[in-house]
Structures are given as C-alpha cells and as structure tokens.
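User: Hey, quick favor. My workstation is busy. Could you predict this chain's structure for me?
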Amino acid sequence: MAEKPDLSLRIARVKRRILATMRRPMFRAGMRDSAPMTLGISAWGLVAGVAMAKSGMGIPLAILMSVLVFAGSSQVAALPLIASGAPMWVVWATAACVNLRFLVFSYQYRPYFAHLPRRRRIALSYFMGDTIFAAFARRYPDPQREPGQVDYFLGAALVNYAAWQAAVITGIVAGSGIPTETGIGFAGTMALLALACGQLRSRSTWVAAFVAACAAVAAYALPLRLNIVVAISAAVAVGVLLQHVRPDPKR
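Assistant: No problem, here it is.
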C-alpha cells in the first residue's frame, strides 16, 4: 500500500517539472520558431502514413512503428522490404543507411549538449529531426553553450513530434482515401529546402550547398538512398576545407 502514494508523488513531481519547463521563455521560443514548419512536416507525415496503410500493415502495428521509429525517410524505405518479406537484417541495414545523416546532426549538437548526463542525451536524440536541427542551428549558429538551449530544443521537438504523429496517424487511418499520386510530399521537401537556404550566410556555406546538390544528383542511382549520405559527406568535407583555407574571422 505504501507504493501508491510514492507513485502518485512521482507523477505529480513529473507534472510540475513539465509545466515549469513549458513556462520557460526559450521553450516557447522553440515552439514559435518551429510552428511555421508544421505544414511541411504534416505533408511529409501524411505521405508516410498513407504509404504505411497501403503496405498492408495493420493500423495498430503501423501506429506503433511510427511511434518507435519516428523517422519518415527510413519508414518509407523499410516498408517495401517489410511487405516483400525481406530478411530483418536487410530492413535494419536500410533504415541505418537512410538515417546516417543523424550522425552528422548529433556531432553538431555535441558542443551544446555534451555536458548533459548520457541518459538525457539519449532521450534528446530520439526527438532529433531535420527541421529541429535547422531551427536550432539558425538560433544558435556558434557552437557554444548558452542558457536555455535544452528548453529551446524541447519546445521545437514538441511541435515537431506532435505535428508528425498527428499527420502520420491521419494518413494511416485515412489510408486508401488519400491517393499517393497527389505529390503532397513535395510540400515537405520545399519546406526543408527553404530552411536550408536560410542557413546559407557565407561563401563557404553556399559552396558546400552547391557541392551537396551536385553530389546528391550524381549519386542518385545508389541504392538505399545513399546519395543523401554522399551529399552530406561531400558538403562537410568542402566546408571544412574552405574554413581551413579561408577561416572565418568571427570564429
């Protein structure tokens, strides 16, 4: 009987922490900065949900996959393999290749979150996404710790996660009622492109972006969407090289 009060106290303590975090200015700033991106996130999430529904996966299993995986590109890439009965290691390898870009993202987050306990960093990594990374990099362009960075990340993550799961579940439930030929996913691509263009503030970033675009097109024929990994690697290499050749005086 003594465990029930302890459990209720823990729940009340967690609620107070959540409410206190949501009242912080940087948490709300993260929500505000991420709100305009929900249109693109929802469009891409709707496409992913429809693809999951049309793959023959049941609704409960599809929703569970969306909650556990929380990565649109890898979900869409893995669905045909799951539907065709491919070996599990092939599905895992495909998802890992598609999500290799998050290694680059996590490396960029390291100066901001390296001081946090490992458990908390692992928890934050679950919510890491393309749009959150773009918003965070725009808000904190210099890789150094500042007060409120975790709150900002959590605010952006809440908006991103809610918009994504709502869109995916809508696509799963609507299923066959939404044709995949509408091209609605293009809205998500354009939203990410607009965010990326907003980060191009110097000659080195423009050159890196151009190299990434060329590399992505040149390597488009690679399987498992490895052209994304090739493009990221080429852009990072060129950006680092340019910083060594012509260093930024502000850094």
